[in-house]
Design brief:
Blueprint (H helix, E strand, L loop, with lengths): L18 H4 L2 H13 L1 H12 L10 E5 L2 E4 L4 E2 L1 H5 L1 H8 L3 E6 L5 E5 H17 L7 E5 L4 H12 L3 E4 L6 H11 L3 E5 L1 E4 L2 E4 L1 H10 L7 E5 L13 E3 H7 L9 E2 L3 E7 L7 E6 L1 H14 L8 E4 L6 H13 L3 E5 L10 H9 L3 E4 L1 H10 L14 E4 L6 H11 L6 E3 L34 E4 L10 E7 L9 E2 L3 H8 L7 E9 L5 E6 L3 E4 L2 E4 H10 L3 E11 L3 E10 L1 H4 L5 H15 L8 E4 L13 H8 L15 H9 L1
Parallel strand pairs: 4-17, 6-7, 6-8, 8-11, 11-12, 16-17, 16-18, 18-19, 19-20, 29-30
Antiparallel strand pairs: 1-2, 3-13, 4-5, 9-10, 14-15, 15-23, 21-22, 22-24, 24-25, 26-27, 28-29
Helix pairs in contact: 2-3, 3-11, 6-7, 6-10, 8-9, 11-12, 14-15
Length: about 650
């Protein structure tokens, strides 16, 4: 499928598990053995071991109507009880659930008992507003404790939450409210970002003016930013007035394992977002299992920090549901990594003695650009495991992460999964896997992965193709909200009984899996399929490069041509006097590493890349530039003016 490369390193190095994790190896090996011997029995055992069931299940999987799976469907549980009440009942009410850090420096430590109390009060408020089983609630909040409380309160009463990232526009919020037919919106007056308060309630007001269905009856508002807002006495209520006055007792009941838990909207190729639906028992089983085993969690001693926003699936699975189901103590941070200073994250790691850090390659590369001096000003010795999520991590960033942040000796687990998969699907287990920089490596126990050619033929041994999941898994999406046909067409039509992830991958000679990015990020240059991720890895491996984004642009001769946008490291940018020569050097570097076929037609040296507030690079906009088109919609960018700056630099 792709031109072979050395994955941005002259020699792929393996890292044996450190002695600390070697003790875990026997348990990890047994997980693989148990899953291989009886996959369904393995998942049933995990569901019983990790969760508390109000009514025990007797059926593990019903796959009689593919692609619509049912897991543990005759069992009943309450997701919020699994995340809160049972830990308090077990005597762990005094354990800190959340170390919350606001961007301005305010902070709160919230125990499991306190969090349980707040969720019960919020659940009573929701029911008092007429929200009940199956009703949808839109949540549009910054990274504050009330976001976690809101999600769990909705789950507690059997309603369905739709969390919308606080950076989305009024139009985006309105379309999601309409699609889910939400009856309640939970928001805040504003939240802190980059040293300023960004308004949220005004966006909600604007969105509700644009909704077509008019389903929202109430808006519950958290006071956070103290910014001036409009108020509708007939509709709006303050969180601090209603929740604090609510009763602290709330009796939770069990719901079926297939009861809907949340809808999370993700981008669609047609332009209309897809409402990915996840249910309760299977989702929570796999989220808890992967959180416990991929991160080698010891809830009595670890302090865990996933830097994702709850507006994304990583925040759902590895900030809220997985960690709290496992009784973990974790950090929740409101702001950006560079406010009020570029060492903010490392200051937080030092303050709370974070032992497990889970973040995105985009963030890691941003830190690389600033240099190692900043993290070295802080004591990071509490860290014992690092994780990567969101996109393939180039080996250069993997090595930097391990050596500069991890001190050169602790594991880095690179995880592959999606909004649709609900939980981690491919990752090393730190106790047993020889770690390989840049490779997601192996499916977790109980997950069946394969690589197929375009016609559906399995790729044997070493080679590249299309990544598929060949067997149903517990945390799999149960459909697209209100559109079962789109669900089948989008994920199952190509290979029938296999889930097509939309990602390219290749298997190396050791059997390890390397993710190559989205298939629509694979270019066809003169008949050769080239991965943008591979070329980006090659560019970032050059000592001059801090970050790179590659797109395919139409070309009359080759069909598509490689166009790269590169940010130079600060130390190098000061020395570059001839931008054209620097670009030529990078073009030669790619040709030498991968082959002449991959040499970029153009390399543009830029100061920034267009990114959403979650850090995702908007390659679609760069493709518009590369092909000379008018730049498309920029409303989801963290900085909507950045495309004007980049346009001026590439002319």
């Amino acid at each position: 499928m792709t031109v072979q490369i050395d994955h941005a390193l002259e020699e792929i190095r393996r890292f044996r598990p450190s002695p600390e994790f070697a003790a875990q190896a026997v348990a990890d090996e047994r997980l693989y053995e148990a899953a291989a011997a009886d996959r369904l029995g393995f998942w049933a055992d995990q569901a019983r071991e990790l969760l508390q069931w109000e009514k025990p299940f007797t059926r593990t999987l019903d796959w009689s109507n593919p692609p619509f799976a049912k897991w543990f469907d005759d069992g009943e549980l309450n997701v919020a009880v699994n995340c809160l009440d049972r830990h308090v009942a077990a005597g762990n009410g005094d354990r800190v659930a959340l170390h919350w850090e606001g961007e301005p420096g305010d902070s709160r430590d919230i125990t499991y008992a306190e969090l349980t109390d707040e969720v019960k009060r919020a659940a009573n408020v929701l029911e008092g507003l007429g929200v009940g089983e199956g009703d949808r609630v839109a949540i549009y909040l910054p990274m504050i404790p009330e976001a976690v409380v809101s999600m769990l309160a909705v789950a507690r009463i059997g309603a369905v939450h739709s969390v919308v990232f606080g950076g989305f526009s009024a139009d985006s919020l309105a379309s999601r409210i309409d699609d889910a037919e939400a009856s309640l919106v939970i928001t805040a007056d504003g939240g802190y970002r980059k040293g300023k308060v960004f308004p949220l309630k005004p966006v909600v007001d604007e969105a509700l003016g644009k909704t077509e269905k008019g389903t929202v009856q109430n808006v519950l508002v958290v006071r956070r930013g103290e910014n001036e807002i409009a108020w509708d006495d007939a509709r709006d209520q303050w969180w601090h007035e209603t929740v604090s006055a609510a009763q602290a007792e709330h009796t939770a009941r069990g719901f079926g394992a297939e009861h809907p838990l949340f809808i999370l909207y993700t981008s669609g190729t047609t332009g209309k977002p897809k409402g990915i639906l996840h249910t309760s028992g299977g989702y929570l089983t796999q989220a808890a299992f992967t959180h416990k085993n991929v991160f080698d969690l010891h809830p009595e001693t670890d302090v865990y920090w996933c830097t994702a926003d709850v507006g994304w699936v990583t925040g759902h699975s590895y900030v809220v549901y997985g960690p709290l189901a496992n009784g973990a103590t974790q950090v929740l941070y409101e702001g950006t990594p560079d406010t009020p200073h570029p060492g903010r994250w490392w200051e937080i790691v030092e303050k709370y003695k974070v032992s497990i850090l889970y973040t995105a390659p985009t963030a890691i590369r941003s830190f690389m650009k600033l240099g190692r001096r900043i993290p070295q000003e802080f004591n990071l010795r509490s860290l014992r495991l690092l994780g990567s999520v969101g996109e393939p991590i180039n080996p250069e960033a993997w090595i930097w992460y391990r050596h500069v942040i991890g001190g050169g000796s602790i594991p880095v687990v690179d995880t592959w999964w999606q909004t649709e998969t609900g939980a981690i699907m491919i990752s090393a287990l730190p106790g047993v896997t020889d770690l390989k920089p840049g490779s997601a490596q192996v499916p977790i126990p109980g997950i069946s992965i394969d690589i197929l050619s375009d016609d559906g033929t399995p790729v044997e041994g070493e080679g590249g193709g299309l990544l598929v999941v060949t067997e149903p898994w517990p945390s799999m999406l149960r459909g697209i909200w209100g559109d079962p046909e789109r669900f089948k067409e989008t994920y199952w039509e190509k290979f029938g009984d296999k889930y097509f992830a939309g990602d390219g991958a290749r298997r190396d000679e050791d059997g390890d899996i390397w993710l190559l990015g989205r298939v629509d990020d694979v270019m066809n240059v003169s008949g050769h399929r080239l991965s943008t991720a591979e070329i980006e890895s090659s560019l970032v491996a050059h000592p001059w490069t801090a970050e790179a984004a590659v797109v395919g642009a139409s070309d009359e001769t080759t069909g598509q041509a490689v166009v790269a946008f590169v940010i130079l490291k600060a130390s190098q940018a000061e020395q570059v006097t001839d931008v054209a020569e620097a670009a030529d050097e990078l073009r030669r570097h790619v040709a030498a590493q991968i082959g002449a076929i991959a040499r970029p037609r153009q390399v543009f040296i830029v100061n920034e890349l267009p990114k959403t507030r979650s850090g995702k690079i908007m390659r679609r906009l760069l493709r518009d530039l590369a092909e000379g088109r008018e730049v498309g919609d920029t409303t989801t960018l963290a900085d909507t003016s950045i495309m004007q700056v980049i346009s001026a630099q590439v002319r």
